[in-house]
Structure formats: structure tokens, C-alpha cells
Amino acid sequence: MxxxxxxxxxxxxxxxxxxxxxxxxxxxxxCGAVAELATAMVYVSDAGSVVRCAGCDAVLATVVHxxxxxxxxxxxxxxxxxxxx
Amino acid sequence: MIVRRAATxxxxxxxxxxxxxxxxxxxxxxxxxxxxxPGNDAGQHLDVRLTAPDGxxxxxxxxxxxxxxxxxxxxxxxxxxxxEVSPFLVHDLRVxxxxxxxxxxxxxxxxxxxxxxxxxxxPPVQLVAGGSxxxxxxxxxxSHVGAGDATPFRLLYSVRTPADVFFPDELAAAAEKGAMxxxxxxxxxxxxxxxxxxxxxxxTGVEAxxxxxxxxxxxxxxxxxxxxxxxxxxxxxxxxxxxxxxxERFGGT
Amino acid sequence: xxxxxxxxxxxxxxxxxxxPPGQTLVEDWPVLSAGPTPGxxxxxxxxxxxxxxGTVHRWTWDEFLALGLQDIEVDIHxxxxxxxxxxxxxxxxxxxxxAEVETTQDFVMAHSYGGYTTNVPLDELLDGQAWVAVEAExxxxxxxxxxxxxxxVPHLYFWKSAKWVRGLVMMPDDEPGFWEQSGYHLHxxxxxxxxxx
Lengths: 85, 253, 197
What we know:
The complex is a heterotrimer of chains A (about 80), B (about 250) and C (about 200). Chain A has about 80 residues and is mostly beta strands. Chain A has one domain. Chain A is about 5% helix and about 45% strand. Chain A is globular and about 35 Å long. In chain B, about 40% of the residues are buried. In chain B, the strands form two sheets. Chain B has a six-stranded antiparallel sheet. Chain B has a five-stranded parallel sheet with strand order 9-8-7-10-11, with helices on both faces. By secondary structure, chain C is mainly beta. Chain C has three helices and eleven strands, in the order βββαββαββββββα. Chain C has helices at about 60-65, 95, 180; strands at about 25, 45-50, 55-60, 70-75, 80-95, 105-110, 115-120, 130-135, 140, 150, 165-170. In chain C, the strands form two sheets. In chain C, strands 1, 4, 5, 8, 9 and 10 form a six-stranded mixed sheet that branches. In chain C, strands 3-2-11-6-7 form a five-stranded mixed sheet. The radius of gyration of chain C is 17 Å and the shape is globular. The interface of A and B includes residues 1, 2, 6, 23 and 83 of A.
């Protein structure tokens, strides 16, 4: 199984945020790169999704689903920029 | 001033299957009526969630072949060997069935016709599709044609064999009337009389079939991860600005 | 409100009495990845155990193999509901690796090439409960399955069997590793279905 990109985060994060997370830009806490989350590398498995910086591979975020619960981990993002209408 | 239009917020909907047909031997076109659908942009996707009698659920993302305000949505589902959801959608789903849908999703890999469709000097659009990655790009072509938009459109579409082309007649018709330029590449088997032998895309193959760097196209690449990464790298090597290239990876080989 | 989708059953999930609750027997060996697969050559590989006083015990690949490989057969259980029974492995017992290690601390953080971490109590790594494994099913461990070497702790969910393991660090408290921080259970006993927080 190879990785996907951040376009597929739109569904998972739609339950947490009211904005589309894929066009939001985030700063990587490890290397400082700022990029749209759609460009992040996403490794998906049944254990969860791991979102990694396209520049340095550091973990930006994790999403874990269980029955009726979801854990959103945003460990590697210093801040998220969202454009409001 | 940059004006960013607010994307319609995603929500859960119930869709009812109204039509199905095999688009290729392994991919099925599915049309659903979704009364609460708010409309979607070309390039967006939705999640399909299936529930088994014991409560087990499986969710998968599918790009929309349709766009606009209509409450009818169209998907093309490619069967993944040994998959959990796609074999059900390709073989078992029937007209009249209801399924849960989450969407519209995705604001990054999206194309909208310009506000003034007759405006001159719009940057051309270059679409590059690998296999089933053509679906969101097809939605963009349809949106472009439907709007009577004058933007130069070009589609480079890589498939294994002629039988694997999605919507061949519709694409040929769009090319014939000058709405877009179409370049098909066959990697395993070509149609009779095809001038080139079958083979994968290469750097030079891409260079010969895409809008020139000097014309500064907006590029959308979609398909399996390895395909997208190879093509994106070649485009950057050719001189296209990375910021002008948007990619969507479908996973798989 | 979800409803049952007509005709959908998902994959077969019949319960086998030899398995912990919620597990299904599989014949293949699924690969789950959280990132790019590290490529570590055995010529560059080292394994370390670091203790609270700053001591670092280190083995090269050859020194590690010289400790002696055990042939074992164990059941493994992944938190994503698949299990494999009677799987043959070869590895160095953690009892051998800890033979010369002096520590007063009770918990271990396993670290892997690529940055993965997972926590395990020391007393669950000793007494024949854990290995650093180099072969599975009769052949050298492939990179996608954690090769050249991975931790093997079969009595806990398989996320604790850290792929590409490079070393262990003693710690005074049971700090959560990568998946444990992300929603998974701190301990991970499959027989008590300790899957999530």
C-alpha cells in the first residue's frame, strides 16, 4: 500500500472543522515548511491515517477511527491558516 | 484582491441508485439521486459508507464525474482486486438501492470556469490522467464544455488498453469540436493502426503531449500514486512551476 | 442515522475460538504503514539499550547475531482485527540482550529507524516474552514487515512489535509512544481487548 495525499483528509476532518482542511495551510513543526494540507503525504491503514510533511516526512497529524469515536492528533502542526469567506 | 469562494460544507446524504452501466470490463458507472445534494465543483469527491447487518461499516472515497447544482451525481467505480467496497459497488449494488454519502469533499483539487467564460488570455489547463484518475478530470472537462468556456484545455490520458478508456465517445466528441485537445497513451495494448508501440509514459512522452512551459498552464494530475509522482516530477523537470501543478493520488500501483 | 446497506456484509468475520475477542484468522500477512519504509543495511545497523545512568549498550549486526537466535512459534494479533497463529520466527531473546544491563527503571520506550516509538513495561519484555526478530516464516524479515530487525512481543497487540527497531530506552514512567499518543491503549493486551484509550 503506498501513500495518498492530503486531498483524502477532507472527509475525516469535515466532522471536526467547518472549513475544508485540504486548502488550509499548515506549518510543519519540524522543518517550518508552510503548505496546503492537500499536498501532505498521507499513509492510510486500518490502524489509522498518518499525515506527513511533504518536505521532511515529519508527522503532522494522525487520525484514528474506532467504533463511534475518532481521535484527531495534530502534533506536528504549529498552526493552521484558514481563509474565511 | 484574492477572492476565495466559500466551499459548500460537507454533510451526510442518502443517495438512491438510478442507473448503472459497465464503463469498462472492471469499472462501473453509477448514477445516484441525492435530493439533499448542495451541488459540487468539478474535481471534488464524496465518501460512500456501507453498513453490514452486524453494524460493521466501511467507507471509501470516489471522485465525482459530475459537477454543478444538480441533485444527480455520477461516479465511476474501478474494481480493486480483493477490495472490500469496490467489488460490492461494481457487482452487487442495484438500481433502487440506497447508500450513505458524505460530501461534497475537497476544495484543493478543483477547477471552476472563469466568471467571464469569454475572457481572453486565461492560462490554459493541462489535465494528466492515469487510469481511473480520469474521473475528476472528466468532471472538469464537462464543466468546461458545459460553460462554453474559452480556456484552452488539454488532456493527456494514460490507460493500459483501449478497453480501459472511460467515456471514449464523449472525450472524442469534445476533442472533435475543439473544446479540448486529447492525447491518449496506451501502456500495454494499442488500437489497431496506432502509430506508436505500447509503452509507459516517459519524460519525453509527457513533454511531447502537454502544454508548453512558456504558456504557463494550470496543471491537474490524477491517478495511482506512482504515476502521479512520476508525472509531477517530470513536469517540474521540464520547467513547470510546482505551484501551478495540483495532484490527487488514488493509491494503488 | 445509519442504515444497513442491502446486500453488504464486508469481509467474513467469523469468530475462531483460538483467537482473542474481535479477531479474525488470516492466511496472508497484511502490511500496515505509517510512513515511508526505512532502508537500513545490516552493515549500518546497530541496536542499543540506554539506561538511566547514561550507559549505552551497543551491538553491531554481527555482534547481535552472535548472541544466538532462537526458533520460536507464536501467535500474533493486530489491533486491526487480524491474527496469525503458529507463526515461525527467529530472533534474539530480550533476556539475552538485557543479561548485562543494570537498571532500576520499570518501563521501556522502543525506538525505530524512521522515528516510530512504542512503550512496554520491562517485565513484559523479559522471561521469554519478547525478541528482536530477524526472520519470519523461514526467510529474512522483509523491509515492509520491519526488516532487517523488529521487536516481537506477541502477547500484546502487534503495534507494540516495533518494526525497524534500533534500540530501547529505559524510562521511569509508562510514557505513551506513537500510536499510544494517537488514541491507542497504553498497554495493549488482546485478551482484554485493550485497543483504545
